[in-house]
Write the structure tokens for this entry.
Amino acid sequence: MAKTVRKRASKKELILQKAAAMFREKGFAATSMRDLAETVGIEAASLYNHIRSKNEILEAICFDVANSFNANMEGTESSNEKSILKIEKLLRFHIRQMIENYEEVYVSDREWKHLDEPYLSNFQAQRRNYRKKFASIIEQGIVKNEIRNIDAPTAVLIILHAVSGIESWHRSRARISAGELEDNMVMIMIDGLRKHS
Amino acid sequence: MAKTVRKRASKKELILQKAAAMFREKGFAATSMRDLAETVGIEAASLYNHIRSKNEILEAICFDVANSFNANMEGTESSNEKSILKIEKLLRFHIRQMIENYEEVYVSDREWKHLDEPYLSNFQAQRRNYRKKFASIIEQGIVKNEIRNIDAPTAVLIILHAVSGIESWHRSRARISAGELEDNMVMIMIDGLRKHS
DNA sequence: CCTACCGATCGGTAGG
DNA sequence: CCTACCGATCGGTAGG
């Protein structure tokens, strides 16, 4: 009995995982349920014993990722660290998520437009909220003179998108290690490209 | 006679322009030729008097953008400026292209995966080549001690993706001016977030 | 530039 | 989990 439940749960997990990989590679709209079924190793109709619809798969992926980032943001917000350190920690969390949970984070970032209502509005609201919190940490840092006097929303925008560049790193051949990548990204974002001699 | 030619050319231009806007908004795969036709104001079948296929539209968009960036790169490469200034100029070019030629640049960046062969391979090769040239300018700057000792490919990756963040700026309401955006982005990328007191 | 239409494929359901 | 199948929609063509 417990075995059956576990088996079913893991089959759904398998479907979500394969779907994330295919949505990342070809895009949500260009991935057919028949393609997905073949990858999973069953007939297309059988997918519907595990999931209700194609869109439900996307919802599961997007909101899993959103929850994980929101939880991390709450922990960071409430800590007593300096603003610049908070930002570094957020940055490192983004980088690690992008490295370790690549397919899902990528899909959640690029394919959320295909969500149906009311999930679409909900997701967009969470996104706006997350960025607002991020920007206000930066603003606190500016007030406390830890951070350069820049436009905070622009900085958030740069940071979030810069991290999504790991996409290219992820599939390149001759590449540096994950740790080196992380340190390089942090150094460039925090201290910039220019060398002060 | 000349009038007819001009008229036809401009109708094709209109189709490409509307297509870019729709591909950006909904994605290439999720945009149907019937949607596009309606936006243009004709029947779907009539589109084929101006273009050969849906994929030909994407090819036109992607290679127009690629040509423009390649031309700018050649001009920058051959100049005698300092490396850090070359990078700043490339960065400013990217930002301006993203602001002024938003739909096309965005589509070329996110939807090129849907190109058919041999265009797909051709486009990917141009992309790799562009990044290689960008990285080698950074490496020259490191050698000349103008730039921090970072992994050059990682820096390219960050810069290119950071700029694509302008997507969010482009559609937000309360936003700073294009010039302020550009200066903020350049400052953050060149000198970083941290303030040195 | 339109009407009429093609074969292919889509997401999903019925019934077992 | 499968076979059989649904209506809808897709990119594209024929012919005028």
